[in-house]
Amino acid sequence: xxxxxxxxxxxxxxxxxxxxxxxxxxxxxxxxxxxxxxxxxxxxxxxxxxxxxxxxxxxxxxxxxxxxxxxxxxxxxxxxxxxxxxxxxxxxxxxxxxxxxxxxxxxxxxxxxxxxxxxxxxxxxxxxxxxxxxxxxxxxxxxxxxxxxxxxxxxxxxxxxxxxxxxxxxxxxxxxxxxxxxxxxxxxxxxxxxxxxxxxxxxxxxxxxxxxxxxxxxxxxxxxxxxxxxxxxxxxxxxxxxxxxxxxxxxxxxxxxxxxxxxxxxxxxxxxxxxxxxxxxxxxxxxxxxxxxxxxxxxxxxxxxxxxxxxxxxxxxxxxxxxxxxxxxxxxxxxxxxxxxxxxxxxxxxxxxxxxxxxxxxxxxxxxxxxxxxxxxxxxxxxxxxxxxxxxxxxxxxxxxxxxxxxxxxxxxxxxxxxxxxxxxxxxxxxxxxxxxxxxxxxxxxxxxxxxxxxxxxxxxxxxxxxxxxxx
Length: 472
Ligand SMILES: *[C@@H]1O[C@H](CO)[C@@H](O)[C@H](O)[C@H]1NC(C)=O
Ligand SMILES: *[C@@H]1O[C@H](CO)[C@@H](O)[C@H](O)[C@H]1NC(C)=O
Ligand SMILES: [Zn+2]
Description:
Blueprint: H1 6-16, H2 40-71, E1 85-90, H3 104-112, E2 114-116, E3 120-121, H4 128-137, H5 141-144, E4 151-153, E5 156-161, H6 176-182, E6 187-190, H7 218-227, E7 239-244, H8 248-254, H9 259-281, E8 289-293, E9 299-301, E10 306-308, E11 323-325, E12 329-332, H10 340-351, E13 362-366, E14 385-389, E15 394-396, E16 406-408, E17 422-425, E18 433-435, E19 438-439, H11 443-451, H12 464-468
Parallel strand pairs: 1-7, 1-8, 2-18, 3-19, 6-7, 10-15
Antiparallel strand pairs: 2-17, 4-5, 8-17, 9-16, 11-12, 12-14, 13-14
Helix pairs in contact: 7-9
The chain binds 2-acetamido-2-deoxy-beta-D-glucopyranose (2 copies) and zinc ion.
């Protein structure tokens, strides 16, 4: 058998020309890894079966999507004066979570809408703030500036960005709510990363841009969005972007496979149900576009899967204040006068020596040497040295305690465990249609196309909306 992640990755490879498959090629695996592909004969037979089933699969997709595209037109609006899009982000909603339990509401949107059959691909690093802001701007993190959840201004190292920092200097690019405001419409930004930052025409109006409060019940968030439809037509926000902390919270505590996750997923389904019911009551369910997505997935972590940097002491002493971030994403900014290239060389020497616990699960790079597909170099906010951590592993400077099993994210964005979901329902989306996986930087152009607005330059492809949306 191929590794479980190889099929979706090959598909992504086809569409995006990724030059690498995830970490397998970045961190060399010990040769002892047992594989059923022991000899060339079985390898050839296997590839033959794999390639032929893949081509049948692809052919089927081509046929089915050309049918649905040519025969069905977008449905027209009769109640709303303008297209309206509501995006719900469920933090850490790993792809496939909705199959853990009965999710009739998400299921209904999938059955009656368009969904990514192998999930939505996050950007690297697979962390909450970089991804939410990539969804909002269509930009890879170096271009939108939010390159981590927490990072220093390298020109002024005492000044750190954090989640609650609303100084516009950190937040580059043009997020969707600003695009909507620039075009003279109302938008609502409900707890989404970056909405409280005043930028251009976007002033974060209190009515449509509440101050972040994690205690606000999920149903209250939905009800507030539904209330907007009681406003005079011209004032209804044409875009609402709403953030929900679950099931990421449970994922970190319990890991991705735990009854608490199943419960949280059922709860998120009831949140979707409340939105559907509210829109149906107003007779606009078929007119409003609903997009459900997440920012990243979740991988299980455990005490025995840690790498401690102090074990590298025989090769190189990594000072704590050089480390900008650890955990699933290691970034190191050595002081001036210390050679980054030399640190990288010595660290990798130690890590591959066999003498550092789990050393072969971490590989460090000068940021400019990271494979291109990570898009994680073109910003002076990104520290000189970036460490890629294998799925499920965690890096710390030294052992501080016994670590509980739980979950984490931040790893390589092509890992299947880092994928999240994408479901869309509305007048421009075909019913029961499946589309291939795509990166979340495509969402910006998709939303501006539905809203009929001219967007800002970004990293999404111009042709993406046409390949997904029904023609008007
Ligand atoms: C946050 O929300 C909770 C629940 O609605 C509320 O009781 C609390 O007052 C809010 N906190 C702030 C600072 O508004
Ligand atoms: C991403 O978009 C920005 C803004 O348009 C552009 O400057 C940058 O070159 C793009 N990067 C890539 C890798 O496409
Ligand atoms: Zn998150």
